[in-house]
Every structure is written in structure tokens, then in C-alpha cells.
Amino acid sequence: MTHVKTNSRHPHWRPTLLALLLPLAAAAQTGLPGSAPAAPAAAASAAALAVTLPGDELVRQALDRQPAVQQARHVRLAAQHAAGMLSASPHEWTIDAGLQQRRADSGARGNEWSLGLQRTLRLPGKAELDQQLGDAGLREAAAREAVAWQGAARELLDRWLDLFAARAQRTLQERQLALARQSQDTVRRRHGAGDAAQLDVQAALADVADVERQLAGALAAEARALRKLQLHYPAEADALAKLTAAGADGSLPAPAALGERAASWRQRFVLCDGELRAAQAMADRAELTARRVEAERRPDPTVGVRTAAEAYRTERVLGLTLSIPLGGSYREQAGREAWQQAQASRAELDGRQRATELAVQELFADAEEGVQRWALADRAARAGAESARLMQRAHALGEADLQPTLQARRQAIDAQRSALEAGLAAWRATWRLQLDVGELWSLPGAACAAAPLAPAPATAPAGPAP
To answer: What letter would DSSP give residue 12?
Structure first.
């Protein structure tokens, strides 16, 4: 099975998708020799693979249990507490107390005590920088959480589509097996009537055995895809898998070119890129950190009040204290180091911007080229199906040999498989784009502000939310 990538959905378009079997070839080939194509059987095969994309609630439940999403959530919550710490100031009140005994040469004794209260005060401007640092940390953590949700959603989409594609391939092989057995029955009847050689009977048997082998491989691939889905989403696997099983009648909608949506999606992609937003927040935080370290070259003063009692109760002391650290080369070097880190973060941001631009170009190229590849593959599948139908009928009438008939049918099924994979690849690319622009699923923490997108063309009826 070939794994292909995909994406797409308008915010209000949850299509009932996909009878992935390209019914054109099925209708042509499932007819008995000498009879008209069996259209009802083809319609039943198409209905066997109609599905609905997973809905927001099901996706949210599945992703919420993923370790990467949970980790990102806790990191964001930790960033909230870190911002609160910075807002409250790193300086706390300090109490110091002392008790001592004084003994005079005359033998007199007395106890003395002292009590003090002091606190370091942030100089003007530092509190504002700390507040900005906390906000930048929150923005970075929120962007990282969006990245986690988006990455988990991509993985879910891929695993769900892998199972969907595996079941589609299995159904194609089942249909291929039915056609192979029809050919076998035809050859047996002709052999019984003295119109076919024993060699043809053996060739038909070998053809059926080969298709059964391919079907066994398709079944194994489907089982592997299902196990992976169950391993990663144990609580939602049954609901997710059910969406790839039998459903409404329909066919695979033709992948639509992006058209006017391309420009708005390009802008939206940049706005929704969590990695870029995280890099921007990290660069801002690095620059704020450098400014904060630079501000520490003006040390914060520590002020306090102190009271004490003399041993013989003849004196009481009450006073104020002030201490100011003297900045030296250590603070100077710390400031220079912080500015270099800020420059490094800014360079990383520039690199991330270029990577985002490249990713935009590649994703849009994949989506547009996928539509073109599907069109070519679909045309080839239609031509191959018609050729196989004519050869099958000619063989049933005794006007064609078995080997060319088998070869035409194999070429037709290969063309169907290629068209199926091309269609899935085109849709996966579109779905991936819609996921990256925030239009496939509504995920908490992954939303981004942008202008409304151009409406997507209605290529399939809307399906009910699971």
C-alpha cells in the first residue's frame, strides 16, 4: 500500500466523503460474460467505502489525551505562574532578629535584643520589563501549545487516512478477486464445452491465487493500520475506525484547485504557524531579557528599619538601614552575554520565517500538483476500465484469448489503484493545508486571528457530526 499525504475542509464543510473505489471501472468489469455491466453491484461497492471526516469533538477528545498536548498544556500553565512571579517582584520582605547577653567586669549581666525588617525595592522601569517578560513567556508557551495541538492533529489525520486508504485498497482487491473468479468460471464453462484449453484453466487458477495473495497483503496492511489507530487513540479508535467503514452512497469528489482561496490561505498559513509565533515570542523574550540584565547594572537598593534594646535598659535604638550593591565587571559581562543571546534568537527567527515561506510554497505546490496528477490518473483509470470491459466481453464471446483479457484486467485494476492513491494524495494535501490554516478542525489553543477565507466549492454533501 502506498501511503499518501493530505488535507482540506472549509469551516462549515464537513463532507460525507469518499467512495474511494472509482466506480467507473467496477461497473464495467463486474458484469458476467456476455451480459451488460452490473451497475447495482458497482453502486453497492461504492457505498461500502463512503465515510465522514471525524468531527471536532471526537478529534478534541482524541488529541487531549496525547502526551505532547498534555506536556504543552502544563508548560503553558507553568508559564502563567512564572509571569505571576515576575509581576509580583522577585524581592521579598526579610526579618532578622538577634539576642545576646552582656556581662560587665563588675559582674552585672543583662540581655540585649535587636529586630529588623528590610526589603529590596525594584527601581523604576524594572517592574515594567518584568511584566513584559512574563507576557512574552506566555505567548511563547501558548504558541508551543498550538504547535503541539497542530502536530497531534496532523498525526491523527495521517493515521486515520492510513486506515481509510488500507480499507480502500482491500476493497479494490476484493473486487479484483471477484472478477478473477468470474474469469475462472468463464474458462471452466468454455473448457467443459470444449472451447478452452486446459492451459487456460490453469492460467485462470494461477490468476485467482495471485489475487488472493494480494488480498491477503491488503488485509494485513489494514490490520496494521487499525492496530496503530487503537494504540494511539484507544478510547476513540472504534469511533474513528467506524467513520472509514460502510456509510452513505457516493463517490470520491474530484479534488478542487485552490483558485481564489490560495492567496488568503497563504496569509492565513503564516499567521497560524505556531513555530513562527513561538520563534517571534522567544526573540522578543530574549531582547527583553537583555534589557532587563542591562537594567541590573543599576542595582536595586535594600531599605529597612531596625530596633534594639541595650542590656541594662538604659538605651533604646531605632534606625533605618540602606544597602546598595556596587556593580562591577560581572554585571557588565552579563549584559553583553544577554545581548548576544538576543541576536542569536533574532537570527533563529529569520531562519524560521524562511522555513515557513518554503513550507508554504511546497504545500501549495503539492496541493495544486495533486489535482493535476489525479486528473491524469482518473483519465487512465477510465480508459483502462473500458478496455478491460471490452476484453472481458470479447473473451466471454470467444473472440479474445484469456491471457490478453487477464492482462487488460490487471492493467485496469492497477490504474484504479493509482487513481485511488492520487485522489487520496490530492485530498490529503488539501486537508493538510486546511489544518495548517485552522480550517479543518476547531482545536483549543490552536486558533489564530485572520481575515475570513473565501468559501470552498461544495463538492460533496455535508455529513452529520459524529
So the answer is: T
Q: Quick one: which of 30, 296, 310 has its CA closest to 177?
A: 30
User: Nearest-CA neighbor of 392 among 382, 406, 381?
Assistant: 406
Query: Which single residue is written with the C-alpha cell 531582547?
Result: 287
Sequence-distant (6+) residues with CB within 8 A of 202 are none
Residues of the chain with pLDDT under 70: 1-51, 246-253, 445-466
How far is CA 216 from each of CA 22, 84, 174, rounded to the nearest angstrom?
22, 60, 10
Cβ burial of 155 (10 Å; 0-12, 13-18, 19+) is middle
Residue 109 backbone dihedrals phi, psi, to 5 degrees: -130, 150
Q: What distance, in Å, lies between the first and last C-alpha atoms of the chain?
A: 28
Is 20 in contact with 163 (CB distance < 8 Å)?
no
Q: Which three cell numbers stand for residue 36?
A: 451488460
C-alpha cell at 377: 490518473
DSSP code for 33: T
CA-based max dimension of the chain: 142
Whole-angstrom distance, CA of residue 252 vs CA of residue 420: 9
Q: 42 and 26 in contact (C-beta within 8 Å)?
A: yes
Residue 7 is given by DSSP the state: B
Amino acid at 432: R
Q: What is the pLDDT of residues 294-351, one digit of tens each?
A: 888 888 899 999 998 887 777 888 999 898 888 778 888 988 899 999 999 999 999 9
Quick one: pLDDT at residue 174?
A: 86
Nearest to 316 by CA among 107, 113, 97: 113
Domains and CATH numbers, the chain: 16-436 (1.20.1600.10)
Residue 57 in grid coordinates: 469533538
